[in-house]
Amino acid sequence: MDTGHRRGRFTAASLMKTALAAALPPGFRSTFFEGLTAADSKAALAAARQERISPGQLLQREGEPATRLWLLVTGRAAAYRLAHDGGKLFLRWGLPGDPFGLATIVRAPARYLVTVEAVQEGSLLAWDLPSCRALVLRCPSLNKALNSVVANYLDGLIDALSARSFQTAEQRLARMLVVSARQLGRTGPEGIELDLTNEQLAVTAQVSLFTATRKLSKWQDLGILKKHRGKIVLRSLSLFESVGKDIW
Amino acid sequence: MDTGHRRGRFTAASLMKTALAAALPPGFRSTFFEGLTAADSKAALAAARQERISPGQLLQREGEPATRLWLLVTGRAAAYRLAHDGGKLFLRWGLPGDPFGLATIVRAPARYLVTVEAVQEGSLLAWDLPSCRALVLRCPSLNKALNSVVANYLDGLIDALSARSFQTAEQRLARMLVVSARQLGRTGPEGIELDLTNEQLAVTAQVSLFTATRKLSKWQDLGILKKHRGKIVLRSLSLFESVGKDIW
DNA sequence: CGACTGATTGACTGCCCTCAAATAGGGTGG
DNA sequence: CCACCCTATTTGAGGGCAGTCAATCAGTCG
Predict the structure, then answer these.
(1) pTM greater than the 0.85 cutoff
(2) B188-240 pLDDT tens trace
(3) Cα–Cα–Cα angle for A57, A62, A68, nearest 5°?
(4) In a designed cystine with B24, which of A23, A188, B28, B210 is the match (CB 3.0 to 4.6 A)?
(5) Sheet hosting strand B88-94, strand order edge to edge
(6) Is the CB of B214 under 7 A from strand C?
């Protein structure tokens, strides 16, 4: 069990004493814990339950009563809303440290706003309803932190709506490449590597699979990116940033 | 000065004693005050400043430092985001009782997320930064209430994005007619009356002015609505509701 | 009776989606 | 190592929704 002494600002020795914390990856950080005292964080961790997740697994379903708050610990998740015909409206990626199920605390009546699905193997940390209530009672500052998180969602959503309304398919694709690269890109020898299939990119950029393929091919011909199966390598972000803006 | 004794749940006699409250329209209600004690509401009112507004006036500008929280008291406002080319991305209507400038409390650093413009004569009630801080200190429950409000914005935004992505121009128009009718419709002798120009409707439904005109004409020919200059009369909401859904 | 703003209609255009069909990568079992 | 399968990807042809542009008509107000 790797408990190496990293200098993550949150993995204080005190936390490492709990059994659960020992199972957390080293260097694990979450906006959710920022603003909580170490003691509060410890208490929160003690009340949480850990769980493994697999690709395709639904972590919460929109419309269902919100009964738990959870944190993605490892892996990747996707938040989307379902269309009536079963289509998926991609909203955002979930990465290690991202909180979900905020509706459990925030809304009344508490119902999940979105559907969240795991897209990689991983694990999460969950609090049931009684634990949530205890948590907010114990930490009033939590509400303010949540406000901030939700406000950021708002901002991102407005951006997405703006993109969908004013930008062309090509611009949305470029924008999504940049956004995704920032979130889930690794720096490799030839540029920024992204584990995304054409289809995933198409869904996230709100573009048909075919136009996504065409634009990617075009960009590959131009030499500003390289593709393999299920993987995209961007030579540089700035090129795509300039396409994503609608300044020209 | 009309101080008739309505049974609005908020216009308690105690509030009416303040000078400002006397200037409030009778029956005035706001989600913002729900969950505040009468004493807190009174204190809040005492700290507020009232202001008149006129059509076209910008009440807040996206990106600018958020320095005040305010409540629309009378009139109508529109919240939108600007595109780079000056185009407007309509987000929602503001009606009497609606709070704005929540970023002042919620975000750090505090910057307005959206631009808000008055579209009718009216008035607002504003709190400056010091008053805001005092208010949240005095009323911790405010944070929870704000959470709820912001979560509702989120929900509405996701719906809008969903509509923009999965629905046709016609469906979006029908949906927007329903949404607008609920918010600013009056019940008249021939149906629900809406003060909207074709252009306003087009902007709110994210449709070009011309397609809006065409669809409205079509619906008028079908006899399910009637138009005058700057005014639309819907015979019944249910017809448009069924168009708005994408069940068929 | 102009002047202005709002509404209408037609013709044209283009982005991007749909559908069909073929190709290629990557893993598996024989 | 090769045959095979399944999935990801590519490419072309065709079509439709809805946007742009231009011109005209119709209320309203001074």
Answers:
(1) yes
(2) 999 999 999 999 999 999 999 999 999 999 999 999 999 999 999 999 999 89
(3) 75
(4) B28
(5) B58-60, B115-118, B77-82, B88-94
(6) yes
